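Lab notebook, bench 4. We co-purified these components, and the gel suggests they stay together. Before we commit to crystallization screens, I want a quick structural picture of the whole thing.
Request: model the full complex, all chains together.
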Amino acid sequence: MTRRVVVTGMGVVAPNGVGLAAFDAALREGRSGVRHLPRLAELGFGCTVAGVPPGVDAAAEAAFDAEMLLAMNANHRMGALAAIEAWADAGFERPRPDDDRVHWEAGAVLGTGVGGLDTVGGKLVPMTDAGKVRRMGSTMVEQVMGSGVSARVSGLLALGNQVTSNSSACSTGTEAVLEGVARIRAGLAERMLCGGSEGDSHYIWAGFDAMRVLSRRFNEEPERASRPMSASAGGFVPAAGAGVLHLESLESAERRGARIHAEVLGGALNCGGHRGGGSMTAPNPEGVRRCIRAGLADAGITPREVGAISGHLTATGADPNEVEAWAAALEAAPGALPPITATKSMIGHALGAAGGIESVACVLMLRGGYVHASLNCEDVHPRVEPFAASIPHETRPLPALRTIAKASFGFGDVNACVVFGKWDGR
Amino acid sequence: MSDEKQIFEKVVEILKPYAKNPDALASVSQETDILGGLKVNSARLVDVVLAFEDAFGIEVADDDADKVQTVGDAVRLIQGKLA
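Here is the predicted assembly.
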């Protein structure tokens, strides 16, 4: 019998809401967190809007000591803030630094898509090139190493189980959740903090702008710039943030009488192999369909039992392919597709953090019995038009909502699909 | 800034964000051990020495920095550079 895995805590740092209560309210209201960023205009970016969580530095200064802050770039600050919120939300005290007890049963998979390029571009490279390595200080490695965020969080919370950072581009956060589920199912951990984070850095976003995959035509109207499923979508809005789930075996949660937000019914990970139309930057449609089908099978539900879809839906030309892939995977005729929504329409695309933030959104929607609005697709893309009735332009109350399927896709032709189930006590 | 008391106070100010033992910091003296007493993370000594360099306009060779164990060691090292 496979061990069941439940969500007993969550933490989020999102462009439209920092902290669970603010994020839940923003989702219900359909509030955008996309803003104009003058710095991007100064630097000649085609896209001059972004989703940047407000007040992160002030929140970090309140939460972490001065020495720690010297070694925490934006990625670390956002990831650690979300992780400590998830830990507290799960009912655990933040351990004192001088308390030598270790939570051997608890670990973390906290991934990042690109990582600390603010540190690399702002300090490491310029100081190295200027011959000033001697004056760089001690904090470079821990801020640029791939596992920096999970390493920081393990020290903050005295985690003693597996602690690692995964990276699979834009599927990172969702992959992290499924890695944690697998570890708990296998009996190797009781609790895992899982999700993703990505700092706000123009160095991260520059490469995407250079590819012309960022939104360029709505710079004067930031809140309208992220347009998943829209005919006028012209690229994604770059974003930053973090989303973390505190996953726990059902036995452990019941033993300690924990409040359970939802169950992770299952999921799947795969890669399209850069074949059949797939490439470094585009998904093999068969890979996407297989991943969704495998996710549902692992979750033990039929396509008809999917109550809502949280898409990857970034607002590039790939959105219509994705919607068609969902319809094919769920064998749903136009009109029969469950409600499908794009969290990125409110916050942009937070890359390695996206799957983490959107997983938090899924659990909030399941708990609250609603599907949040998918903004900025009044002009539904012609290829999405047959499924238009499934798009909530305003937040839809859905008290009977029992399952949400969430997918994330990433460069490298990698796919992740996770299925969350409502928790009603059994 | 060659007055010993001034240097001591500046050194303590620089060490403050790195000190994990508030009790030792509150009763800090020239004899206080930086790693063992103030519980400064040894990896951060590099940053402390860089801050000394900036604050006093000096340059500290790695071999000299390695000899600093107490707050008084740091004060005497800086005094010597300023002399």
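DSSP finds 15 helices and 15 strands in chain A. Worth comparing against the SEC data before the next meeting. The mean pLDDT of chain A is 97.
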